[in-house]
Amino acid sequence: MGWPFLGETIGYLRPYSATTIGDFMQDHISRYGKIYKSNLFGEPTIVSADAGLNRYILQNEGRLFECSYPRSIGEILGKWSMLVQVGQMHRDMRMISLNFLSNARLRNQLLSEVEKHTLLVLGSWKEDSVVCAQDEAKKFTFNFMAEHIMSLQPGNPKTEQLKKEYITFMKGVVSAPLNFPGTAYRKALQSRSTILNFIEGKMEERLKEMNGNENDLLGWVLKNSNLSKEQILDLLLSLLFAGHETSSVAIALSIYFLQNCPGAVQQLTEEHLEISRAKKQSGETELNWDDYKKMEFTQCVIGETLRLGNVVRFLHRKAVKDVRYKGYDIPCGWKVLPVISAVHLDPSLFGRSHQFDPWRWQNKQGSPSGKEGSTGTSSTTKSSNNFMPFGGGPRLCAGSELAKLEMAIFIHYLVLNFHWQLAAPDQAFAYPYVDFPNGLPIKIQHRQINHDTRPHS
């Protein structure tokens, strides 16, 4: 169980390559099996790298287990944050998010906004230049979420200032909870206060205007919910955080994996050229939902990026009753960590689990290597019970469909318009949040194609 109070937390959180489960986890699984006990984050903890137990935990949310993030995360995100809420309040906030991210809204409004922000970022890329792909992905997702949540326009000084505050805020969310001057945690608490003041100012403007604008989440919540001011502030703060941080990491990971997989880039290019040519023939310029649905191999790339990269590596839960699972006793009150990444990287569930192989997600024998994993490519499809990049059960990520849409549209314009390669060595690390230490610098060149799909600013 490790040291008193600290337990094994330092070892568990030591950075490691994001396409592995790390030496700590590997060592513990080999010694104790896929389900073992430890002391993490100051509490006795059951760690699960077992696919069956992970599903069981997520499906029994609210009955046998409940969300239980460290207090430090609650202090930064706010006590009304959807991430830390449980029970009816979580259901109410989740319903607001789902209503605003409905399928109809994705089709009719958000797709064109995602396309606009993609073109804005890619249109600024210059021939033979080196860009920081991680920062560019964050710029894209932050600008989209800021407009989507509060109608903030990209490039506006206030939007840029808010973006800087959010970078400080993000670093504190995932840092050691040391509330001393100069620490990342203290700076994040200060940024939280600045961001909340900004959102509150926007709220007051809206309430004075009373113009019924429901085009952004702030307007929608003010008109359609009974949440208090404090609850709305924490909801918007956490959605802006969740909505841009995870999606941008996933996009950066796809850029990283694809530059090492020319076969996938070639197949993606063919898929998106076909869509682009059909658009040109019909005289249309903007992508629509039918175009998105044609991006079948793109969805395989997205699935494989999320499986191998594991943006969210583990979840925080707590047993609310004594639980018995397949001979294991989980005492009431103990912390439980379902480790999603350990399942996604388990070679007994996903053949060649440490290779980037988007063809594994096709419903036919499609891997370019001509080999199958131990369970066969056809069994590891999108509906696989073992694939949980967005969690599962009642707390399944409300923004999962939006995240996949953002990735697909970005990939569409990326492969049509650019060749890219790493400009300097870099790789994804888990801290446990996923990050590229050097920001993923890539050298880009415009792709010459036979008709104009060049992004424009």
Automatic annotation (TrEMBL):
This is Cytochrome P450 90B1. Belongs to the cytochrome P450 family. The keyword Heme applies. Residues 366-384 have a biased composition (Low complexity). Residues 360-387 are annotated as: Disordered. It catalyses: cholesterol + reduced [NADPH--hemoprotein reductase] + O2 = (22S)-22-hydroxycholesterol + oxidized [NADPH--hemoprotein reductase] + H2O + H(+). Heme binds at C397. It comes from Anisodus acutangulus. One of its GO terms (cellular component) is membrane.
